[in-house]
From TrEMBL:
Binds 2 magnesium ions per subunit. Its EC number is 2.5.1.-. Pfam families: Prenyltransf. Homodimer. The active site is at D28, N76. Mg(2+) binds at D28, E219. GO terms for molecular function: ditrans,polycis-undecaprenyl-diphosphate synthase [(2E,6E)-farnesyl-diphosphate specific] activity. Catalyzes the condensation of isopentenyl diphosphate (IPP) with allylic pyrophosphates generating different type of terpenoids. Its cofactor is Mg(2+). This is Isoprenyl transferase. It comes from Streptococcus gallinaceus. It comes from the Bacteria.
Length: 252
């Protein structure tokens, strides 16, 4: 439970809310945010990185256990080379500018996705962040970088097939738990692998190949706020809405 105050008819009300344990965010709208300000698109990504720091700290304070952020999809390579290069450099900047503060706040950094194709400097910054924070016990900030849900399922199937060939188990042993273990999110604590709440900013109403297996029963929240403008207040609004939902998981 998390308690926060908000104003309704100038009256301060305190509400006890259930905080989602795993929040996943599609950080959309950086380009449009920049364009509106007559700035190059990449300035939107830079502002998006700053927003990420603010939201991570807010989520950590509220008691969220895992925050998965869609930083770069397997489809984003089709963007102009300059933009891809800029985004790939953000983890390097993030490591120097923000990881020390997150580390001090007990945040643990992890990542999911296919990291083979990432530039060396990008991988290096992420590995360093993982290494530095690996003993932290607070919120897990989980970067989805070169992540695609279909790619994740394909690689899980390849690994399962290989392990069957290696006689580690039989096809009949494959159940939902085995599959979940082989997905990229298998690196997360088992009880927090599936997001309780998925937030997508900037008005688009789709999931864009983000965690298709894991979001089977997630609550979806869409907001028109562009990602660089998303802040603690916006996160609280999403959690408030989450608390209005009745999660039945197929039951009644
Ligand atoms: C989508 O907005 C956003 C991205 C593809 C990149 C998101 C990356 C960040 C917010 C920075 C993350 C930080 C680190 C350290 C990796 P868009 O460009 O599609 O926006 P548009 O729909 O307005 O064009």
């Amino acid at each position: 439970m998390f308690t926060f105050g908000f104003n309704k008819k100038k009256e301060k009300i305190r509400a006890a809310l259930e905080v989602p344990k795993h929040i996943a965010i599609i950080m959309d709208g950086n380009g449009r945010w920049a364009k509106k300000r007559l700035q190059p698109r990449v300035m939107g990504h830079k502002a998006g990185m700053d927003a990420l720091q603010i939201v991570t700290k807010a989520a950590s304070d509220m008691g969220v256990r895992v925050l998965t952020v869609y930083a770069f999809s397997t489809e984003n390579w089709t963007r102009p080379e300059k933009e891809v290069k800029f985004i790939m450099n953000l983890p390097v900047e993030f490591y120097d500018k923000y990881v020390p503060e997150l580390h001090a706040n007990n945040v643990k950094i992890q990542m999911i996705g296919d990291h083979c194709r990432l530039p060396e400097a990008t991988k290096d910054a992420l590995f360093k962040a993982e290494e530095k924070t690996k003993h932290n016990t607070g919120l897990i900030l989980n970067f989805a970088l070169n992540y695609g849900g279909r790619d994740e399922l394909a690689q899980a199937m390849r690994m399962i097939a290989q392990d069957i060939l290696d006689a580690k188990f039989n096809p009949g042993d494959i159940d939902e738990k085995v599959i979940a273990d082989y997905l990229y999110t298998g690196v997360l604590p088992a009880k927090y692998r599936d997001p309780d709440l998925v937030i997508r900013t900037s008005g688009e109403l789709r999931l864009s190949n983000f965690l298709p297996w894991q979001t089977a029963y997630s609550e979806l929240y869409f907001t028109d706020i562009a990602w660089p403008d998303f802040d603690e207040k916006a996160l609280q609004a999403a959690i408030l809405e989450y608390n209005r939902r009745h999660r039945r998981f197929g039951g009644i």
